[in-house]
Amino acid sequence: MTNARDLSGLLNPRSITVIGASDRPGSMGEKVLANIRFAGFTGGVFPVNPGREVVGGLPCFPSTEALPEVPDVAVVSVAAAAALDEVDRLGKFGVRNAVIYGAGFREAGVEGRELERQLIDLADRHGMNLMGPNTVGATNFNNRATTSFSLLLQSAPWAGGEVALIGQSGSIPSLIQTMARREGIGASHLIGSGNEAVLDIVDYLNYLVDDDGTRHVFAYMEQIRRGGLLLDVVGRLSEAGKSLVIMRGGRTNTGSAAAASHTGAMAGDNVVADRLLREAGAVLVTSPDEALAALKILRVRPASGWGRRTAIIASSGGSGVAATDLAEENDLEVPVLSPDLQEDLEEGMPPLAVLRNPIDLMPSGFANPQIIERLLQKLSDSTEVDTIVIVGVYDVDASVLMARTIVGLANSTSSAVIVPWWGAGERVRAEFADSKVAFLPDMTAGFRALNAVWASQHSTGRTDHATPAQPHAEDPLLLTESVLKPQLRDAGLAVPATATASTRDAVVGLAERIGFPVVMKATSPLIPHRSAVGCLVANIQDVEALGRAYDTIVGRARAIDPSDRSSEVLVERMVAPGNEIFVAFRVDPSFGPILVVGIGGVMTELAGVLEIAQLPAARERIAAMLTTLPIFGRSLSPEQLEGTVTVISDAAQWWLERSDEIVELELNPLVLGADGATIVDALGRRAALAGVSA
Predict the structure, then answer these.
(1) What is the DSSP string of 143-177?
(2) Which of 97, 87, 136 is nearest to 16 (CA)?
(3) What does the DSSP assignment read for 104-131?
(4) φ, ψ (nearest 5 deg) of residue 165
(5) Which of 187, 190, 89, 182 is nearest to 136 (CA)?
(6) What is the Cα–Cα distance from 423 to 610, expressed in whole angstroms?
(7) pLDDT tens for residues 222-272?
(8) Residue 534 backbone class (left: φ over 0; alpha: ψ -120 to 50; beta: rest)
(9) Rounded distance between C-alpha atoms, residue 610 and residue 599, angstroms
(10) How many CB atoms lie within 10 A of CB 373?
(11) 42 vs 21: CA distance, rounded Å
(12) Residues 6+ apart with CB under 8 A from 426
């Protein structure tokens, strides 16, 4: 894992100082002190205000330097410009954790960005953990510590719990925490990451991996800055048996623009992020109601314990059918139960009960605890369903009794049970408060959440490289890289040293001449996409590994192409890792020659985002296509951009001169280096009546 920061002083402090403490009603300095009192914090609290001797009933100090001890964390409740001096003084005094409330930093334009840059420099100089700026602060409910100015903390009695909530916007996690608290679900932490000048969501998640008081985490994100490290910590949370529910803002064009103005950073590409986060084990939701429903479901059992095959138990045909529609609309299955299982369920059922699924027990059967208990047991013991849904309705006396029965049964069964409820009032809600039942008053959000939980364990992800491919029909028009790359190299384009061989000894000679590390690929025209079928091995470091790779590739190639061509492989110098792009040229029947650019390598299909331009295209147009690519387009250095534009422009010119013969050319990937791009793979298609020499 990465070197995680020590955030214990920030998120579990023993002492707190408030810079800019105040008795002025409504000021942030007044509200945070009120919250600290309300929480019952037992550690040291040190207000700082040069104009006051007492604030909030506590002795007030004129400056940081006058404090009686170095506090674990400082709350900086002053304007953005003044915050820099205060952070510098805190750092010199030895304070290593600070919460910066003030807005007016990166989100406020050029001047604000400069202030934030200076703030980051100060934090680096003093080795400080900075939360914010533009944050609501943080609360540790289990240890009764808070640095938050949000008065929502005082809207209900203080209660700890096992759900941590983090957000780049403090309002969404606060809303979910308030909703959860109404239903008896307590929180461990409430964290507003704000602008994330120094600390970001990755840092907070790293802390929560080892936090004993946290079992479930909700995170609201408007942008992802460190995607690789985020995936790493998502995986570590999963390994620790902790669930992570993520809601992402800025998913639409308008939403993304709003996210940029609010946080000063553009959202990342949704298709790629969603796919990779699911692969890592995160549960992705789209609303606070869905997030709360997912957290409730995950409190009952981990994501791996839920499945799509759903049994629905209802008190009437109408509610059962409506629930079935919602389930199937959210990609859940409601399978018809087998005749044997239906027969096994018949004992003791009302005469008119329907047992096919959805199961209609009639009001008399639904109100009978013995029938419900037996039904749960039989369904749990069967292999036909994964999840049991009990559909509740109304808030009458019989509904309250039914809710009480379900809570009692849930404590004695191992079934994966959720209870969506239409028309639940305060009496029904009270029965489920602080229970282990996944009670879902919003049925639509509940089924969406159940599907999201299931999807987190069953993401389609990348193609399994070890999956054997079915034989391909030979395409006489296909041009492989062994044909194309020598011509591209002769045209002056950056192509790694490459050669082909058909025996183990010849391969060894080639590799030693080219120089390790090398890449080896099958050359058969029946295998155009080698990585998908295990006919490509990269980063081969020595002769022993080279021999193993040759045997593996030839064996897999022979299963697809039984001809002598299967023994031929291409050996080339390994290109240093870097960002990868996809470049293609083709003749469109309506628009003529076009250029297509996108994310390269295995990410091409995952991203699904392509930039298209007619050819010939000016260098400025190609540059604009590159810089608008998701994930890394805007981070290209001037040298990378200029060099990559040159490679694409030269390749386009080479192809345009041959486009009557080569109607399609795909360069995937181009690996970006410090000052340009290298063509790692090439695939083409010749015109039906034309040829191109090898």
Answers:
(1) TTEE----GGGGSS---EEEEEEEESSTHHHHHHH
(2) 97
(3) -SGGG-HHHHHHHHHHHHHHHHHT-EEE
(4) -125, 125
(5) 190
(6) 46
(7) 888 777 788 789 989 999 999 999 999 876 654 444 443 322 222 234 544
(8) left
(9) 8
(10) 15
(11) 18
(12) 395
pLDDT at 471 over 50: no
**Alpha-carbon distance 580 to 626, whole Å?**
11
Chain center to CA of 613? 31
CA-nearest of 302, 306, 351, 361 to 333 is: 306
Rounded distance between C-alpha atoms, residue 508 and residue 543, angstroms:
7
The rounded distance, in Å, linking the Cα atoms of 403 and 398 is 9
Q: Tokens at residue 77, please? A: 């409740």
β-strand 569-573 against 682-686: which pairing, if any?
unpaired
pTM for the whole structure: 0.67
Centre a 10 Å sphere on the Cβ of residue 151 and count the other Cβ atoms it contains: 12
Task: Check if the beta carbon of residue 32 is closer than 8 Å to that of residue 16.
Answer: no
**How many whole angstroms from its chain centre is CA 17?**
35
Encoded tokens for 577: 């890792």
Residues 6+ apart with CB under 8 A from 108: 80
Burial class (CB in 10 A: 0-12, 13-18, 19+), 662: buried
Structure-block tokens of residue 523: 């050359």
Which amino acid type is present at position 672?
A: L
d(CA 687, CA 290): 52
The 3-state secondary structure of 416-468, one letter per residue: CEEEEEECCCHHHHHHHCCCCCEEECCHHHHHHHHHHHHHHHCCCCCCCCCCC
Is residue 254 classed as helix, strand or coil in its secondary structure? helix
pLDDT of residue 145: 98
| Strand partners for 479 | 684
Q: What Rg value do the Cα atoms of the chain yield, rounded?
A: 31
